[in-house]
Amino acid sequence: MTKLFEPGRIAGLILANRLVRSATAERMADEAGRPEPPLVEIYEALAQGGVGLIITGHAFVHRSGRCHLKMTGVHDDDLIPSLEALTRAVHDQGGKVVMQINHGGRQCAEDAIVEEPLAPSPVPRTGGGPRPRELNEAQIRELIGAYGRAAGRAKAAGFDGVQLHGAHGYLINQFNSPATNWRKDGWGGSMARRLRFLEEVAAAVRDEVGSDYPVLIKLGIQDFVRDGLTLDNGVEIVRHLDDWGIDAVEISGGLGGQNVRKDILRPDEEAYFLPQARKAREATDLPLILVGGLRSKSVMERILEEGTADFISLSRPLIREPDLPLRFQEGQDKASCVSCNRCWPPPGEYGVKCRAEE
Fold first, then answer.
1. Would you say residue 91 lies in a domain?
2. Could you confirm whether 272 is annotated as catalytic?
3. Domain for residue 102, yes or no?
4. How many domains does the chain have?
5. What CATH number has the domain bearing residue 287?
6. What is the 3-state secondary structure (H, E, C) of the chain?
7. Active-site residue (options: 147, 170, 213, 272)
8. Which tens digit of pLDDT belongs to each residue from 209-254?
């Protein structure tokens, strides 16, 4: 058996192999945030395709944190029955599924929320957009509680764990980064105070779900922007995560747009967050999940064998080939994804799918 298909473990969650479907914003929920049947079918196909763990597209924890239209919600108890239908579909196929929970902060689209976006500081999002309103103390406390309650709903709906979205310029990343957190109060002004929001969110989640429930994080370990989080800053965050009750870390980066790279055609272009993962590995014994342009089975095997990562995370390849794990087991050497980034719909359309041949 190759390393890629050895069983893996995250806290008490036993996984059949080391392949993870990375969270992917599908935009396939109804107006209330309930997953629509085609989205459930995507997860069912992924489970049938043999991936060890499915991480859902991000789900908003509070009505002010809805990033875009058609986003799945976990902000209301009324959503639990529809989320249960999703977890049941995955479990019926023998799969495991974790819900990624998120608040968009300044990256909430204007048509997706009722009021102006909220953020640690009034810094517009990368690429322009409205100036967000700075969160006050009461609002910060409300959002910390919202993460905890959302995690509790995910557990009640049958998810096998939750993942905090702490990357790609969303709210947790906004608090962590000096490029987006200009505060001088107890929530900013120093590295420790910038990380306080993440620490308290993790505590609220752990208080809600208990000590044994898997809690993961997708961490923006480096911002790749001027005055943003450096790799050394990101490694400092990693050192705290075990103490904060986190069970596994998915390594990613980029404050806005740098996390998804196009035209990955050769093995030496793959695993573009590998240098960051190697630094993280030096700082923690927690299970590490590596995402970022991985396409070739040989590259994945090498990373697992060297011990840099414990799991390999894929998004775009599993949009094109949801049964890629089974194909790898049958002898296929590489994903057929060409990294064209046309999976996500053009303006006015919704739903993620491979559009490479369209």
1. yes
2. no
3. yes
4. 1
5. 3.20.20.70
6. CCHHHCCEEECCEEECCCEEECCCCCCCECCCCCECHHHHHHHHHHHHCCCCEEECCCEECCHHHCCCCCCCECCCHHHHHHHHHHHHHHHHCCCCEEEEEECCHHHCCCCCCCCCCEECCCCCCCCCCCCCEECCHHHHHHHHHHHHHHHHHHHHCCCCCEEEEECCCCHHHHHHCCCCCCCCCCCCCCHHHHCHHHHHHHHHHHHHHCCCCCEEEEEECCCCCCCCCCHHHHHHHHHHHCCCCCCEEEEECCCCCCCCCCCCCCHHHCCCCHHHHHHHHHHCCCCEEECCCCCEHHHHHHHHHHCCCCEEEECHHHHHCCCHHHHHHCCCCECCCCCCCCCCCCCCCCCCCCCCCC
7. 170
8. 999 999 999 999 999 999 999 999 999 999 999 999 999 999 999 9
Which domain, by its residues, includes 242?
A: 3-329
Find the mean pLDDT for residues 278-294.
Answer: 98
Across the range 86-115, mean pLDDT stands at: 96
